[in-house]
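User: I'm putting together a teaching handout on how multi-component assemblies are represented. Below are the sequence lines for each component of a complex, exactly as they appear in our records. Could you produce the 3D structure of the whole assembly as structure tokens, so the students can see both representations side by side? Please keep the chain order the same as the input.
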Amino acid sequence: MRKPKELHRFYKSTQWQVAREIKIREANGKCERCGALGEEVHHKTRLTVQNYLDKSISLNQDNLEFLCRKCHNEEHKRFSKSQQFDEEGNLIHR
Ligand SMILES: [Zn+2]
Ligand SMILES: [Zn+2]
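Assistant: Of course. Below is the structure of the complete assembly, with chains in the same order as your input.
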């Protein structure tokens, strides 16, 4: 499957960087699940090339979750059937 370039572009956008920063600040830099040092902002409703332009999904603070790498990986593993790309738009290998 090809890499979704549109998603790559989204993750590089200023809008996303700002939304991400707000989320990280709100979470005090800590994983919202286990309290460890957070690293990645996760979309509860997964971003796809079909929905990333919908700001109520892609930029909605309520749809974001700040996670450490471990919790983030678990989250994606759990939904591996429906999720093929991580937040950077990279294919997740299973
Ligand atoms: Zn965690
Ligand atoms: Zn994620």
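A couple of points students might notice: The domain at 5-78 is CATH 3.40.1800 (His-Me finger endonuclease fold). The chain has one domain: 5-78.
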